[in-house]
Write a structure and sequence with these properties.
The structure holds two protein chains of two kinds. Chain A is mostly helical. Chain A has a single domain, classed as MetI-like fold. Chain A is built from 13 helices and two strands. Chain B is built from eleven helices and two strands, in the order ααββααααααααα. The two termini of chain B are 50 Å apart. The chains are: A mainly alpha, B mainly alpha.
Chain lengths: 311, 304
């Protein structure tokens, strides 16, 4: 029987085999703990390894030009970047008001029964594979848009924006709702006690107090949208033209993600085209890094402020 | 301060109706605002219901025994989608094999071992970034590392490894949360009875956290099962006349199959397309349902 217990020292008799096993397990767990860093490093390394040669093979001026036509070795990525931007902007125009509106409704206004219905449904939307949304986009949404707006084709940036808005909404709703939930109840009570209506409380007190969490929700929604591939590839019409005018929203575009997905299967490994596609992957990686750093920096600021208040 | 303080409406206020007028206006604004927000919530949710109902309605005639257990025929325009169903099953299983042990171990490290230092913060930043990397970039990475560098080829192995790294952040965060939810007293008691740190984790903490971990694992795998972009260049096959024989074979998969038949095959019967979409949704939402059931049952049974 073991007699003493203590911080691993002194009279305690330890079974050498067990402590050896324990050391191995601890090491394994520690290594797994570091794995996330290793993987981010590996991903970056392989993107750079395959993507950086593009910079040496294609002159920078050509790489950042407005013509993407790989068959004749035009590798200008600007149309793709503009495509990603316009689709994302459109998606946010849909997803921010609807996402935040739904989050406020769920967290502040809805009676319990409505909340119990709304939350699982929004999660359901988050669980739908994007390829299914793309599929419906082709069969239902784009024919509808073509008829409703009298366009030559329904496969446009607008169709992509609407679908991506739907994909971003669950992300925005769940994070914004968490942020609203985290606002102390006493804030609301104080506002109501001062005679504010519930509506004034929401706009004047609760939302401003949850501001940083709501910003995080929006940033992560943007990240989700820029990175989305399948739905956007299926409905945006795949035309790599520079989308700079407002009218571009109702014309076909092509995003960075869609270009990689559509063309990587057909290029020869190690060709110029192959390296340029990896270069686009590098750009996407950097964009997602920036978006996530901003999103977590916002959260971080909120935490330090909370710590300041508490201390 | 000279500013007047608003007083809640009460019957004996006599200010010539001024307060009441303002109050009525504010009530109207609130009514309109609430109506607007509830409309927005409804507008967000109704399309989801419609989408699923529409797919079910369109797909119902296609779902036959032959469709679920048969091979595609006539250039995929007839027959069933068995290879795609089995393929998605293999990919999900393969993803679980790699991501579950690694993800749970990483969560144990973060919840039980890690000190609050720069390294730990770096790990958390890395996890957040893994979660945010676009799925198609995972595809590129899998192509670069597993398919080409490690020479696994386009195979179930490469695709599963790619998907498991993508799934890792979901599993780590959910498992860490589940581990942290286990009350500190459990650990204290175990250690005070002479248990080592690892014994405490293995016999006391982990069993208590299993439902939470399982929920996270299933939600992570659900996402992996529905993803197309990461497997595009790492393991998905356009068409295979047989089932894969080994992890080094490429495979058909439901999401990729849906993409193929809805964009790459001309004159594809709509019924088969909707049928495939419904099977994919059923696969994914079925997993979601299992996770929800585990979560609510564990919550009901929990003693702490």
């Amino acid at each position: 029987m073991r007699q003493t217990v203590g911080g691993g020292g002194g009279t305690r008799r330890t079974n050498p085999r067990r402590s050896w096993g324990e050391a191995v397990v601890t090491r394994l767990i520690q290594t797994s703990g570091y794995s996330a860093i290793v993987f981010v490093g590996l991903i970056f390394f392989f993107l750079v390894r395959e993507g950086l040669p593009a910079v040496f093979q294609v002159p920078l001026g050509d790489l950042f030009s407005a013509r993407w036509y790989p068959i004749e070795e035009y590798f200008g990525v600007l149309p793709l970047i503009s495509g990603s931007l316009i689709v994302t902007a459109g998606a946010m125009a849909v997803a921010i008001p609807f996402g935040i509106g739904t989050a406020v409704f769920i967290s502040e206004i809805a009676p319990r029964w409505a909340r119990e219905i709304l939350k699982p449904l929004v999660e359901l939307l988050g669980g739908l594979p994007s390829v299914v949304l793309g599929f419906l986009g082709i069969l239902v949404l784009s024919p509808f848009l073509r008829r409703a707006l009298d366009l030559p084709t329904g496969l446009t940036a607008l169709a992509g924006s609407l679908l991506l808005g739907g994909i971003a909404v669950p992300t925005i709703v769940s994070i914004a709702e968490d942020a609203l939930d985290a606002v102390p109840k006493s804030y609301r009570e104080a506002a109501l006690a001062l005679g504010a209506t519930r509506w004034q409380t929401i706009w004047g007190v609760t939302l401003p107090a949850a501001r940083s969490g709501v910003m995080t929700a929006i940033m992560l929604g943007i990240g989700r949208t820029i990175g989305e591939t399948m739905a956007v590839m299926m409905v945006t019409g795949n035309a790599p033209v520079l989308a700079l005018r407002l009218a571009s929203i109702v014309s076909p575009v092509r995003t960075m993600t869609a270009t990689i997905a559509a063309e990587m299967g057909e290029v020869a490994t190690g060709s110029q085209h192959y390296h340029v596609l990896f270069f686009i992957g590098m750009l996407l990686f950097v964009i997602s890094l920036i978006v996530n750093v901003i999103a977590s920096a916002v959260v971080f600021r909120q935490r330090t402020r909370a710590e300041r208040v508490l201390s | 301060m000279t500013q007047a303080i608003h007083v809640p409406p009460s019957p004996d206020i006599t200010d010539g109706g001024q307060y009441r007028a303002g109050s009525i206006r504010r009530q109207l604004v609130q009514r309109a605002g609430f109506a607007l927000l509830s409309l927005m919530a409804v507008a967000t949710v109704v399309p989801i219901v419609l989408v699923i109902a529409y797919i079910v309605q369109q797909a119902a005639p296609a779902i036959t025994w032959d469709f679920l257990t048969g091979f595609p025929r006539e250039g995929m325009r007839q027959g069933g989608i068995l290879p795609a169903i089995i393929g998605t099953f293999y990919l999900t299983l393969g993803t679980a094999v790699f991501s579950v042990p690694l993800g749970v171990a990483a969560a144990v490290y973060l919840a039980e071992y890690a000190k609050d230092n720069t390294l730990t913060r770096l790990i958390r930043v890395a996890i957040i970034n893994l979660a945010g990397i676009p799925s198609v970039v995972y595809g590129l990475f899998g192509l670069g590392l597993f398919v080409l560098f490690l020479r696994f080829g386009t195979s179930i192995l490469s695709a599963s490894l790619t998907l498991s790294i993508m799934t890792l952040p979901v599993i780590i965060s959910a498992s860490e949360e589940a581990l942290r939810a286990v009350p500190q007293a459990f650990r204290t008691v175990s250690v005070s009875l002479g248990g080592t740190r690892w014994q405490t984790i293995w016999r006391i903490v982990l069993p208590q956290a299993v439902p939470g971990i399982l929920t996270g694992v299933i939600l992570g795998l659900e996402r992996a099962a529905g993803e197309t972009a990461p497997i595009l260049f790492t393991g998905a096959a356009f068409f295979l006349p047989r089932l894969p024989n080994s992890p080094l074979d490429a495979t058909m998969a439901l999401p990729y199959h849906l993409f193929v038949i809805s964009t790459q095959v001309p004159e594809m019967p709509l019924q088969i397309q909707y049928g495939t979409a419904l099977v994919l949704i059923g696969f994914v939402l079925g997993m979601n349902l299992v996770a929800t059931i585990i979560r609510s049952r564990a919550r009901a049974r929990r003693q702490w």
